[in-house]
Amino acid sequence: MGRVTERRKVIRIRDGAVSTRPDTLVAEEPLEIRLNGKPLAITMRTPGDDFALAAGFLVSEGVLGGAGDLQNILYCAGATADGANTYNVVNVKTTPGVVLPDITLERNVYTTSSCGLCGKASLDAVRTTARWPIDDAPPLRLAPELLAGLPDRLRAAQRVFDRTGGLHAAALFTEDGELLDIREDVGRHNAVDKLIGRALQNGQLPLSRAVLLVSGRASFELAQKAVMAGIPVLAAVSAPSSLAVDLAAETGLTLVGFLRSASMNVYAGEHRLALPATAATG
């Protein structure tokens, strides 16, 4: 199975001095996800938690809604012409009787910002396939001060980032700020899929009282994944996209961007934050 990191020789230049040294890089390999034996998607990922990644991806696609929908996930033996197992192909087998949504042999058309569909079609697709409407979730109330402390906790838990500097991270926190799980990957969407997939495998969906924090920007795709997993709060250390904000407003998702120290922007769902009355109405 592939390694999370690899070593490569680099020429290092510092203040005019030149030296040769090994450097630790994050590994990147393709993962093909098959659904009941049929190719569905290929994603570039950091090896590790591949079964959780596949399961989380299928939650986002509306295929899986709970551990009972999943019969098994296996690496495909003989993935190459010579019969070798590359550990880069997994097959997800659903439980007999699980009704599959209308998906194609390529990544579902509403899951990427480059899909070519209009924004309205993308929003409608998520709204009509979400199993757990966020507005129906139990009430959640967060202090801005609690959110402000989460990025430091995320960064402190990024073990592989410390060695490579090349990984995105996603973490789930409780409403009290307790770290539930953290995953790292070369792709920010993969890190989120790994979190959601592990929650599905553990019978924890929907994540209706969790906060999802991502180390980069908040794209439409990440907002979609939060909504599909029933997560009511998505926070990012960088900017959201316009369609992510639209989706948050459409579904009731609380979306926070530019979360850095005591500073943050709230783009939607401010009713879940304990804001001063003047700020909430001003």
From TrEMBL:
Keywords: Cytoplasm, Molybdenum cofactor biosynthesis. The keyword Glycosyltransferase does not apply. The active site is at C115. It is found in: Cytoplasm. InterPro entries: Cytidine_deaminase-like, FdhD. It holds the Pfam family FdhD-NarQ. Gene3D superfamilies: 3.10.20.10, Cytidine Deaminase, domain 2. Belongs to the FdhD family. PANTHER family: FORMATE DEHYDROGENASE (PTHR30592), SULFUR CARRIER PROTEIN FDHD (PTHR30592:SF1). Required for formate dehydrogenase (FDH) activity. Acts as a sulfur carrier protein that transfers sulfur from IscS to the molybdenum cofactor prior to its insertion into FDH. This is Sulfur carrier protein FdhD. It comes from Streptomyces nigrescens.
